[in-house]
Each structure stands twice: as C-alpha cells, then as structure tokens.
Amino acid sequence: MSGDTLLPFAEGIFTGDGTITELVGSLCTACGAQHFPARTHCPDDMTETETVNLGGSGTLYSATVIRTKPPFGLPAPYAVGYVDLDAHPLRIFMLLDPAHTEDFRIGMPLDLRSGALGVGLGGEPCIRPYFTPALKD
Question: How many CB atoms are located within 10 Å of the residue 32 CB?
C-alpha cells in the first residue's frame, strides 16, 4: 500500500468513494433468491448467481449499542443493526455510523456510507461500509 490509500476491509462487499456507496450482492438466476454478501452459488439450489447492486439505502429494523471492547479497532461504543434494504427484499446485518451511536431509532431511513473505520485482519487501517441516518429533505 502506498501513500494514504486505504483498502476495503473485504473485497466484493461494497463499491463507492464514501459519499456514494452501494452494497454488492448476488441473485440466483434459477429461483430469484438474493444474498448479501454475494455468493457464487445459491445455497438453495446450487445454481450459479449473478452479481447485483443492492443500492445504498434502507430502513432500520433493529439496532443495539455494544459497550464492550470492540473488535478490529472499531470505536467504543459501536452500534450494529438489521437494515431492510430499499431496492431489494433483503434484511441485512450491518455496522451503524459510530458518530450517531445514540441516535438510531427503529423505522428510521438510512443511507450507506463508507470510510476509514477500524483495522483489517492484518491490523492495517481500512475502509468499511456503515449505515447512517438519512439526510432530511
């Protein structure tokens, strides 16, 4: 790694530059099942899948704040939650914006962002996706 360039914590999970971030998933070409993170084969029928863009917005289904020592260099406390994606019929488990740990409410609209957050498996700083409260119109 050269200069200040940070790598994603994992490849193939999301795309984006921080302001426009979208999740990457998969679609089974036989049964239509959608998955996140993406899978090469559908776990239901073992058909090869296609990569699909899952968008970058959703609604908070459930959340919790974790106040024990966080893994991977995340800030303490940190929040995680289940998010119902707007563009696809998926409920996913994701990290929530550490700057808004106490602000999350069930049913609130969320936008996906990515930024320098924590460290990767090798201990190097990395980029992670997270949901943050949607901007009000």
Answer: 10
